[in-house]
Design goal:
This protein is of the alpha+beta class. It has 13 helices and six strands. The two termini are about 25 Å apart.
Length: about 325
């Protein structure tokens, strides 16, 4: 079966620019060089926007540009921006529901969410593999099984949350974000009509990044367990947790580098094959948006560029950051 390249990858890119974003509650956040903006539709149907200057720490330090390290930095920056923009979008989209909540409750909710994610996607697979199978002292076999359990949990999680009405709305805005990025990188005018022919799946999506991290974790932790076994002679669940959990950011950094490579070389069949699982996952995490949702995404990108929009619009670009 032939793989159909994604539209903007067929274009002869004239220059590079890093444009990406994420869906938020009833809106989209877009990040461009030097700033980011959020556009959210309020209960009255009006689009509220916020724009702030932002320069990654990676751009301010040559040491942070090193492979792996830059991925870790980008991960933490993306999480910080993502949480702050999600909170702001909630305040705009549901002002009455959010007004009575304190910032402390939001912090505790975030901590709880991270704790549940670590427990479900990292601790639980290790515990299940340890208790049900006799593979504890087999580095590769153990991590292949625990990795398969982790991926299964991840897929089930995505499918289950996609059934919720609010999450479906979020996934529609996710699709609007991707269509807008496609249109911009293809040099199209930033209008609703210019986005119609582009898909909602994008090879630089955060969903693809998460899947790559899950695969990278299998290989990285198998190597790490092999080293531990060679040094210590045996490994237990407690020792695995002690070694694996602190290294999650490093594995994520490796996943970031892998995503950059697969996105950059999409013109090569091998790398298009590598990106396919992440693309397939986006059939869950993105939905076809309506025109109003695309309008919000377009507005977010326009506000993010601000006065620089006329300088960058209408050119063809290629980029290798997460979309």
């Amino acid at each position: 079966m032939a793989i159909r390249p994604f539209p903007f990858l067929l274009l002869a890119a004239q220059s590079r620019i890093l444009v990406g974003g994420q869906a938020v509650i009833e809106g989209v956040m877009m990040r461009v060089p030097g700033s980011y903006a959020v556009a959210v539709r309020d209960p009255e149907g009006q689009i509220q926007t916020k724009c702030q200057a932002f320069t990654s720490a990676v751009e301010r330090s040559r040491w942070l540009k090193l492979p792996l390290l830059r991925g870790v930095v980008h991960l933490f920056e993306s999480l910080k921006l993502g949480l702050s923009t999600l909170n702001w979008s909630a305040e705009v989209a549901f002002p009455e529901e959010v007004s009575g909540k304190s910032s402390a409750s939001g912090v505790w909710t975030t901590i709880l969410a991270f704790g549940l994610a670590i427990g479900l996607f990292f601790i639980a697979p290790l515990w299940i593999t340890t208790k049900l199978l006799q593979l504890e002292q087999h580095a590769l076999g153990f991590n292949l099984v625990s990795g398969a359990i982790r991926i299964t949990f991840f897929l089930l999680y995505l499918v289950l949350i996609s059934l919720a009405k609010d999450i479906r709305r979020l996934f529609e805005y996710h699709g609007a974000e991707h269509k807008t990025v496609y249109a911009f990188e293809a040099g199209k005018s930033l209008t609703v009509d210019s986005t119609r022919d582009f898909p909602t799946q994008h090879p630089r999506c955060g969903t693809s990044f998460l899947f790559i991290v899950l695969i990278a974790a299998i290989l990285a932790f198998a190597l790490i367990d092999t080293i531990v076994l060679a040094l210590v002679g045996k490994i237990s669940l407690g020792l695995r947790l002690l070694v694996h959990l602190p290294l999650i950011p490093v594995v994520a950094g490796a996943g970031y580098e892998a995503l950059k490579i697969t996105a950059r070389y999409q013109h090569m069949r091998l790398f298009r094959w590598f990106s396919l699982p992440g693309i397939w996952l986006q059939y869950i995490t993105t939905r076809m948006p309506d025109d109003d949702q695309v309008t919000v995404a377009l507005q977010s990108l326009k506000v993010a560029f601000g006065d620089k929009l006329q300088e960058v619009e209408g050119q063809e670009y290629v980029a290798d950051a997460i979309a």
